[in-house]
Amino acid sequence: MNDEQFLLDVMLGKLATYLRLCGYDTVYALDEGMEADDALKQYAESEQRRLVTRDRELATRTDGALLLETRDVADQLAELVAHGIPIELPEEPQRCSVCNGLVRTLGDEEQRPDHAPDDIDPIWQCRACEQHFWKGSHWERMGNIVGGVGEPNHNSL
Ligand SMILES: [Zn+2]
Questions:
Q1: Would you tell me the crossing angle of helices 73-82 and 137-150 to the nearest 10 degrees?
Q2: 103 CA distance to ligand 1 middle (Å)
Q3: CA 129 / ligand 1 centre spacing (Å)
Q4: What separation in Å is there between the alpha carbon of 52 and the centre of ligand 1?
């Protein structure tokens, strides 16, 4: 289980999507309307979330913060791995990549979304924002990126 909880700074929206897909409870600052450094520091410390930021000054003065040096999301994921944070896609999605809500599997008897391909199964729905998800090309693309950084010892596979 990925039990670490994160707060991501405003520049890291893309990384927030990946961390949620990897099952991490991830709050993205802009989703919460937080932009000021002090607001981020206070939220991270009071909610005991690990702040991830590219702002060195903010990282220095926030308890437990993790400073990222790179801009590319694949590089940022690799930085997290280097910091001892496992990055891998779970068998099934656990969190909504859009809002961080927990997802559930849609039952056979439930209405499928109109835009879902007929041969797709299972489908998941976010308990919070009710958006539907399934494993499509997007999931595979992310899996390729995550797979490239998450298991440095298995690159030959
Ligand atoms: Zn959602």
A1: 40
A2: 8
A3: 4
A4: 21
Backbone φ, ψ for residue 10 (5° rounding): -55, -30
13-21 and 73-82 helices, crossing angle to 10°: 60
Average pLDDT, the chain: 91
pLDDT tens string 119-136: 888 999 999 999 999 988
Task: Please give the model's pTM, rounded to 2 decimal places.
Answer: 0.89
Beta bridge partners of 50: 6
- CA 101 / ligand 1 centre spacing (Å): 5
Q: How far is the CA of 152 from the centre of ligand 1 (A)?
A: 31
| Cα 130 to ligand 1 centroid, rounded to whole Å | 6
Binning the chain into helix, strand and coil, the percentages to the nearest 5 are 40, 15, 45
Q: Are strands 25-28 and 50-53 parallel, antiparallel or unpaired?
A: unpaired
Give 58 Cα–ligand 1 centroid separation in angstroms.
29
Residue 94 CA from chain centroid, whole number: 10
